[in-house]
Amino acid sequence: MNVTLRKKSTQPSLSTPSIENNFLNENKLRDIIKEELAAALKSSFKELLTEQLRNIQGELSEFKSSFEFFNEQFEDFKKRSDEKDAVIDQLRNDNAKLQHTVNDLTIRLCNAEQYMRESNVEISGLPEDKSEDLVKTLQTIAKSTRMKNWESDLEDLWLSVELTINNSTKKIALCVIYIPPPVKLDSLQCFLDNVNNVLNNVDDVVILGDFNLGFIDWSGRSDDLHLSPSNYENSLGYSLVDFMSINGLHQFNSHLNADNRILDLVLSNMSDLTVTKPDDLLSKLDAHHPNILISISIPNVKQLETKCRSGYNFYKADYKQIKTHLKNINWYDTFRECINANDRLNVFYVMLQSVIESFVPKYTKKKSKYPPWYSDSLIAALTEKEKFRQKYRKYNNPVINLPLSYCAVAAIL
């Protein structure tokens, strides 16, 4: 066995690198690549992030502008909304005040119309003379007196009206009665007995009021003005119907209330009596007591002749002739026999009246359907009211009713 011993060389070979040196170079290369990639990625990411942030910043700026715009619009809308709310509140307050004013004027108008109609009596054929006394004329034609001795313990009011027709006097008794519910037989019988005593002193009677006997049904034929009772099978019904039959009274009111009943009765022994619904209301309509208008026709009434009125037309007077005539009058001789100033004034009025009669033409005034005490403004207001009333009846428009009320106020004033 041959063994050869050689000394190990300490110098590295130039041709073949060692594995350790080769491994170190790869690591370095990796580090270099890693560093380059990191730098490149960092730069690219920075640029990308910067660009994205710039875009986001731009979008945020646009969003901020939009938000500010919407905020301005909202504030403007809120301001206008507050103004509108203030205007609406003001309109509500004004509407409430106007409604209160309208209600107050309606009540005042109703009271004024009632007050006006209390003294508004129109009689056709009266002498149209300024010196006539209307009160005495009415007392001559129709004299009314309250009869307290006819009144019972109930709520009734009696009037005695004396009508003078063709030199003959006719007495009519008018009664207004209210019997509160529930109606008791004793109260009803007390009133009916009192009416029996009154009928012995008058020719005709008209009794109207709230009897509160709604259980009685009233029906009639078209050719009859009065109605016949039915469904009165109790003591109250029998008492009223027997009383009407004994005294020859009839019931004339056929207008039902909101409950399809008749509480207000119109009893009379006069055949020419009609009950209708009025076109103009004196007071607020009550659903349980509808307003009614009672008309009594009086036949064979002789109308008084109307006097023709004449006047002077000073617009067509001959003032030149008047001036010449007045200059030619010897006033010294005219006033010579006058003792004092009053006599001279009377003589002057006589001379002046003769001049007017001589040089001022006369004209006959047109006949009017209105009394002589109606002024031109009152006639114009009544004409305007009638025009609106016709429109209201034709179209039934509540807007037309407002100027109708104004015309009524104007007519009153």
Provide structural commentary.
- The protein has 413 residues and is an alpha+beta fold.
- The protein is built from 9 helices and 12 strands.
- α1 (19-118) crosses α9 (398-412).
- It is flat and about 160 Å long.
- Residues 1-5, 11-23, 119-126 and 406-413 have low confidence and may be disordered.
- One of its GO terms (cellular component) is extracellular matrix.
- Keywords: Coiled coil.
- GO terms for molecular function: catalytic activity.
Classify the secondary structure makeup into a structural class: alpha+beta
Distance between the termini: 166 Å
The tally of strands reads 12
**Order of strands side by side in the largest beta sheet?**
1-2-3-4-8-7
- The number of helical segments is 9
Profile the largest sheet.
Answer: 6 strands, mixed
- The string of secondary-structure elements, in order, is HHEEEHEEEHEEEEEHHHEHH
| Radius of gyration from CA coordinates | 54 Å
Which strand-content bin applies to the residues?
A: 5-15%
Overall pLDDT confidence: 77
Organism: Spodoptera exigua
InterPro entries: Endo/exonu/phosph_ase_sf, Endo/exonuclease/phosphatase
GO molecular function: catalytic activity
Keywords: Coiled coil
List the helices and strands and how they pair.
Elements: H1 19-118, H2 134-141, E1 142-146, E2 155-165, E3 168-178, H3 185-198, E4 204-210, E5 217-219, E6 228-230, H4 235-247, E7 250-251, E8 264-268, E9 273-276, E10 293-296, E11 310-312, H5 319-328, H6 331-334, H7 341-359, E12 362-364, H8 376-395, H9 398-412
Parallel strand pairs: 3-4
Antiparallel strand pairs: 1-2, 2-3, 4-8, 5-6, 7-8, 9-10, 11-12
Helix pairs in contact: 1-9, 3-4, 8-9
